[in-house]
Amino acid sequence: MVTAIGGPRVLLRQLRETMAEPLASQERLDKIVDLIAANMRADVCSFYVLRDDGALELFATHGLRRDAVHITTLRLGEGLVGLIANEAEPLSLQNAPEHPSFAYRPETGEDPFFSFLGVPVLRAGQTLGVLVVQNSERRVYGEDETEALLTTATILAEMISTADFDALVKPGSDIDLRRPRMFQGIGFSEGIALGQVVLHDPRVVVTNFVADDTDAEKGRLEAALMTMRVSIDELLNSGDMQIPSDHRDILESYRMFAHDRGWVRRLEEAIDSGLTAEAAVERVQNDTRARMLRQTDPYIRERLHDLDDLANRLLRILTADGSVAGKELPDNAVLVARNMGPAELLEYDRTKLRAVVLEDGAATAHVAIVARSVGLVAVGQAENIVSMGEAGDDIIVDGFTGAVHLRPTPDIEATYIDKVRLSAKRRAHYAALKDTPPVSRDGQRIALLHNSGLLADMAMLDETGADGVGLFRTELQFMIASKMPRVKEQVELYSEAMRLMGDKPIVFRLLDIGGDKVVPYMRSTAEENPAMGWRSLRLALDRPALLRTQVRALLQAAGGKPLRILVPMVTEAREYMKVKRFILRENERLPRLGFAQPETLEIGSMIEVPSLLFELDRLLPETDFVSIGSNDLIQFLTAADRANPRVANNYDPIARPRLRALKLVVDAAAKYGKPVTMCGELAGRPIEAMALLSIGMTRLSMGASSIGPIKEMVLGLDVGALKAEMNDYLENGETEGSAREFLAEFAERHSLPV
């Protein structure tokens, strides 16, 4: 076994001193490999860096020929060095030339060396390079030497990530850490955004790597672990977590990992090698992440996020970093996160935010809906982008295709600049249609309305020429407020929204919170399935004071003008009737309180719970209008959680069973002479909008950016011909092909822009 001189702690102190010296980058790197070779009694110490073209380039060496530096390269997977980089695992050999992966490079002069120890240089689980020591004698490198070299590699990983290291890179190439990467996600909202990465939950940056007192560092680690375990136990014992839920399952995973003796032992061993407690956490998590990323078992890969979050919690305690997402943004910020709620998104300065990219999520999740509402480009399911991205990185988000380009090359950037110009031309084309009534080729007038929720959205009415607001989501005001909005504050919002509308209609949906629409100042009980739990109307009926406050604010805000109120998530007709009577009583009180009653008061029901489909004959005579919430209705009809990316896209919302269900509502509304509006995400996409028109729907409410494309499609459509063909398709269960295929073929035959 090779015996190191002074041990790893001495080496780390020497490296710390070298890093602080005023040396040129290559001179510093040369001195580092000399120090490692001397400390480990090695004849050779070499440092290879992974380039952006997949080649491992020799950046520094002690013992091999110096003129081979920046000349010798090995492909990823080639030779022992390439094998280590590919598998992210250490490799110790007594006779390296006998290994089947050994690759000889004559220009290095490595002929006489037999014993070999190589370790990967990792950052965030990503291989940045390989550090190697060799000896001419056939020796065995033991666990202590491997641990010492891995610890040294942690320091080198940070050195590679600094801007000073760029001076060593040849012109025209770059290191793999900064190479361009493309992530294929799913577009949540259309558009293209070019900007800079802003991490929603920034990683803790470790700056102190070398321990002066290992016993003290172990004490710090033990105290931090205890603090973290206590905080997790307190969360699990709180009232919110007594019912089984996804949140509780995650915390249970955290607790299991936090008490795992193997994990704690590895942290302590890293400290014994000379690292500080926080550097040990980063070192162990790097190794763990590298191994888990290379696993094919999806369960193991899913646990990676739990371990990342747990390590980050521990780092925040050790570094006393209590920071949360920073709200100071560059002018072209692109928010990158694993996942986030809609309220968190609304906390950012939307004048500087261009796009949001998530590792998780689904197109119908509320954060995606809010992103569309405020005009942000959004992409989800961009796997692993949080770990690969750095704050300030250039990024391009393509909401049309779901592609995200991190650190894009100049040619890709130029291509997207051209696409942005083309997109601007499309917007100009749609803007030219704003005063053109959306009348189909066969003379049917289709009402195109906005979904909204913020006053900032309202200005887009003039830009799109929409007929009004078919859905004003009143909950957004509650989600962005730090405390419950008072009656006066609500009145001001609703009054201003009506003023901005002018003579155009606006439909106010009553408060729809719960599920992933979290209101921070309202305590709620954790639920196993929040989407089907205590939310929306159910919450409002149990909190009559909350409902009363909002209804009074809406009635007062009308100031004698027409008022339309929409009741969300009605499960049974009796619930709607209860709320209707409540609203009418409050309306009767207005004159006694000195307020004018609305000129007209219309009360409608959302149809988004399947059981209501079987009470339409009871419900419709009591309503003034109805609106379909396709997002919830489709997820309940298919038993597929719209926020779960595994199942959210498994069932086409316009497949024959769902269209038949929607047609039930349209036909019943026609029977009772009640207007019906589609307010879900279906209305905002041309093919889906065609499906809705084909079953008799004539009122569509959507995001502002969808008005132009839908209007252009309507202007070229013969609705009567489409309805005739669709009726045959729906009634003939033997017809082959999906509704989407049928509609796409119809659009192609009639040259419709979809």
UniProtKB/TrEMBL annotation:
InterPro entries: GAF, GAF-like_dom_sf, PEP-util_enz_mobile_dom, PEP-utilizing_PTS_enzyme, PEP_util_C, Phosphohistidine_dom_sf, PTS_EI-like, PTS_EIN. One of its GO terms (molecular function) is phosphoenolpyruvate-protein phosphotransferase activity. PANTHER family: PHOSPHOENOLPYRUVATE-PROTEIN PHOSPHOTRANSFERASE. Its cofactor is Mg(2+). Belongs to the PEP-utilizing enzyme family. SUPFAM superfamilies: Enzyme I of the PEP:sugar phosphotransferase system HPr-binding (sub)domain (SSF47831), GAF domain-like (SSF55781), Phosphoenolpyruvate/pyruvate domain (SSF51621), Phosphohistidine domain (SSF52009). Its main location: cytoplasm. Signal peptide: none annotated. Pfam families: GAF, PEP-utilisers_N, PEP-utilizers, PEP-utilizers_C. It is found in: Cytoplasm. One of its GO terms (cellular component) is cytoplasm. It catalyses: L-histidyl-[protein] + phosphoenolpyruvate = N(pros)-phospho-L-histidyl-[protein] + pyruvate. Residues 24-170 form the GAF domain. Its EC number is 2.7.3.9. It comes from Pelagibacterium halotolerans (strain DSM 22347 / JCM 15775 / CGMCC 1.7692 / B2). It comes from the Bacteria. This is phosphoenolpyruvate--protein phosphotransferase.
